[in-house]
Amino acid sequence: MPTTTPGLALEARNLVKRYPQGRRKPPVTALDGLSFGVEEGTVFGLLGPNGAGKSTTVKILATLSAADSGDAFVAGFDVRGRAADVRRSIGFVAQKQVSDPMDTGLENLVLAGQLHGMGTRDARSRAGDLLDRFGLAAAARRQVKTYSGGMARKLDVAIGLMHHPAVLFLDEPTTGLDPEARTEMWAEIERMAADERTTVLLTTHYLEEADRLASRLAIVANGRVVTEGEPEELKAALRGDAIVLELLDAADVDGALTLIGRSPVFRDVVREGRTVRARTDEGGQALPLALAMLDAERLRVASATVARPSLDDVYLAHTGRSFSSAHSEGSATDQATPTIDGPTIDGPATAEERAA
Ligand SMILES: Nc1ncnc2c1ncn2[C@@H]1O[C@H](COP(=O)(O)OP(=O)(O)OP(=O)(O)O)[C@@H](O)[C@H]1O
To answer: Which stretches are annotated as coiled coil (predicted)?
Structure first.
């Protein structure tokens, strides 16, 4: 019998999952040997383009789906043989609101506790603690339909925590919230993870969120983990700086892309709308060179910046596309940027395409 690695609250080992697509089509490979481990009491971020396999991974870990092969453990339990124990050990905060809008916040929490087998007294006491913790005490006896988006989202997280789960799955906890509510939610999640020693698996469409909350993160592409580490470590592993050149005229962007891409000084050269991004060893020296090259071809620049590597650069280096372009609108496949000398991932952008 396989066993989990000591000290890990979540572990995925070589997970493979294929979805059948009917008789004439080959199956979609959603997970292609995906592995990662999450230490107890930490926040771990799972990032990746649409269709990379994040939801499939979370579903397998939460026992909502079974892998074709590989092993997965949650709170020390094998998801295959100990599904009931896994379910007792986890809280799951999905993107969709789970609270009943016609009930009060308190009623929602108490019901969630009772569903997990808590007695009414315990459930009320725990609900009171969580309402305090999430700044919802004053609204405890109001129907949830009167809550703001941020308040309703906090209540959802509190519902997921009612039964003191060892592991909390947070699927895009701040999507749809305004910046203020988002910042507030981040503070609550940080505090919650520290106070309760809850292990959190966070999937998010906001790099800033992963950067702020996750002590480690994994970037998933084509059903595999393509890189994993602490955000700062991942950034430091990228040599050099990023330069970003915004062209005055959209018609000049292709020319600039070719010019910069041809120079050995620059690498990972990509187009993003009206801008060209590239990596280079010494940004301060390379930027004047890039400007001189563009000027010689009469390609006019509206703005030019040098920046230390960001998490977006890490994402770009490992997936061949920038996070913002992959997540701004529609699917990542639609948003893929042409890359010169850049991508580290071979083949099509999604498992779906690969199987096609
Ligand atoms: N039930 C299903 N039947 C067929 N294919 C599926 C099913 N669920 C997922 N897939 C496919 O498996 C691949 C991985 O999907 P998954 O939802 O895990 O990705 P994701 O990283 O969570 O994407 P997103 O960010 O869009 O939620 C995709 O190609 C997807 O189309």
So the answer is: none
